[in-house]
Amino acid sequence: MISASLVKELREKTGAGMLDCKKALEANDGNIDASIDWLREKGISKAAKKADRIAAEGVAAILTEGNNAVILEMNSETDFVAKNEEFQNLVKCVLDAIIKSDVNTLEEALALPCGEGTVNDLIVAKTATIGEKLSLRRFSRVVKADNETFGEYIHMGGKIAVLIVVENADQAVAKDVAMHAAAMKPTYVSVVDVPEDVVAKEQNVLKEQAMNEGKPAEIAEKMVQGRIKKFFKEICLEEQPFVKDSDVDVKTFVKNNGGVIKGMYRFEVGEGMQKREENFAEEVAKQMNN
Asked: Which CATH architecture best describes the domain 57-169+264-270+282-289?
């Protein structure tokens, strides 16, 4: 006979439902550890059914410790779950695991110790207990020099996260740049970071536009040079007019404060992913029925 207190203990350790916990204990003669493994195996089965779902909500988060920092995107299917304390604790555990490591790939990160298993084990278990597909989409682990400073900014509770590294400037400057990047969505730090094929493609488009306006080839070439500068202002952090003072670009703002931008990491939740079309009422109703 499985006691209620044993079922309660297993439920607290795993977050699984009471009935599932009772079944697990019955299948394993009341052994807690074996029952945890049994539930994990069942969790893998449940999670597999959710593998084809779209998880394009979630949070982007940052953790800094000394000269080390991690920025990541963890996805869920709904914004409702992304705000859930259990999901937020999962994100914290993963951040902590990565910042203490030297991993560089998702595969390596998923194998890191986290909680009572690996990061992947924890994600699978939470997928089963929360009832939505959860996934670690991407991360960057950043190490700065002693004369460099991190600037971080989280927008809308984690919809956008920006981590900036500046050299020889203080944290206030770095954070201002991070806030700017959150708002203006630059793709690259500087002009030299833009790949040659991206520049060439844009130049061809601009030249065609000028030619279609009836401009001679030599005039079109000159127009391209002017318009490509505007293109760089749109996509390069350093070239953009600073949001707090549009009389200077971001590069000049940082330079006026004694610094240089060394790196930018900007994660926006769900960017480039297909999102489901559901309204909030349907989302809440679905959560209540799980």
From this structure: 2-Layer Sandwich (3.30)
